[in-house]
Every structure is written in C-alpha cells, then in structure tokens.
Amino acid sequence: MAIIITDECINCGACEPECPNNAIYEGGAEWAWADGTTLKGMITTLNGEEIDAEQENEPVDMDIYYIVTDKCTECEGFHDEPQCAAVCPVDCCVDDPDFPETEEELLKKKDFMHL
Q1: From CA 67, how far away is CA 65, in angstroms rounded?
Q2: Which of 15, 22, 57, 68 is the most exposed place for a label (fewest CB within 10 A)?
Q3: Cα(80)–Cα(77) distance, rounded to whole angstroms?
Q4: Which residues are CB-contacts of 80 (< 8 A; sequence separation ≥ 6)?
Q5: Where is 98: in which H helix or E strand?
Q6: Ramachandran assignment for 11, one of left (phi > 0), alpha (psi -120 to 50 degrees), beta (any other)
Q7: How does pLDDT run across 38-80, given as a tens digit for each residue?
Q8: Which 3 state secondary structure label does DSSP give 15?
Q9: CA distance 16 to 23
Q10: With a threshold of 0.90, does the pTM exceed it?
Q11: What Å distances lie between residue 7 and 53, 83, 91, CA to CA?
C-alpha cells in the first residue's frame, strides 16, 4: 500500500529528502510527475490518464507534508523499508489502507517513473 502522512505530522520535513520518487511535498506545494523522476512531456499514467508530466497539480494537503499516492512505491526497488517512516520522529508515515498494492504493482510504478 501507499504511505500516508497523518495529521500528527509536526512539519519537520525529515521525510521529504528521503523519498526516491519525490512523492513527498510540503503542505500547500504543488506537485508534478516530472519532479524527481525521468518522466517528461506528455505521458500516459498507469491508470491510463494522458497528462503533461511537468503540469503542476493541486496540493493534496495545505497544512502538513503529504505523499502523492500515485508516486509512492513504499521505496520498493530502492530500500528495504519506506524511508519516510524510518526517519519520521513522530511515526506519522503509515500504510494507507485506502490504497492496497502488491509488491509487483509497486515495482511496476517504480519502473514507470524511473526509466
């Protein structure tokens, strides 16, 4: 499953630089598929949506750091455990039960973003 940052977040920012997919953003910051990935120009996402990888998207949260679910791979293919959870001082980076994914799905997502 993807990781979510709970409202217990203290906005320390320790998680953001640890994400190999650049899936973590400060509250209120816009995000793009191209951020921290090899994706450029027009792309077709894994769910079939055609978009510009550099297009800025609305923040998921305005107040605390957030994780873009579609970019989160739980660090599969990079590390043995999600690095955001490993460095979080208040344990607010947890599994998101709304987005269950298999290891195979997570690796496919990683391969999509990092050619």
Answers
A1: 7
A2: 57
A3: 8
A4: none
A5: none
A6: left
A7: 999 999 999 999 999 999 999 999 999 999 999 999 999 999 9
A8: coil
A9: 8
A10: yes
A11: 28, 19, 11
Q: What's 57's DSSP letter?
A: B
Asked whether 69 and 101 are in contact (CB, 8 A), the reply is no
Q: In whole angstroms, what is the distance from residue 38 CA to residue 64 CA?
A: 26
Rounded to whole angstroms, the Cα distance separating 115 from 12 reads 31
State how far the Cα of 36 lies from the Cα of 109, in Å rounded to an integer: 14
Is pLDDT at 107 greater than 80 in this prediction? yes
Return all residues near 48 (Cβ < 8 A) that are at least 6 apart: none
How many angstroms separate the CA atoms of 52 and 43, rounded? 6
**Backbone dihedral region for residue 74 (phi beyond 0: left; psi -120 to 50: alpha; all else: beta):** left
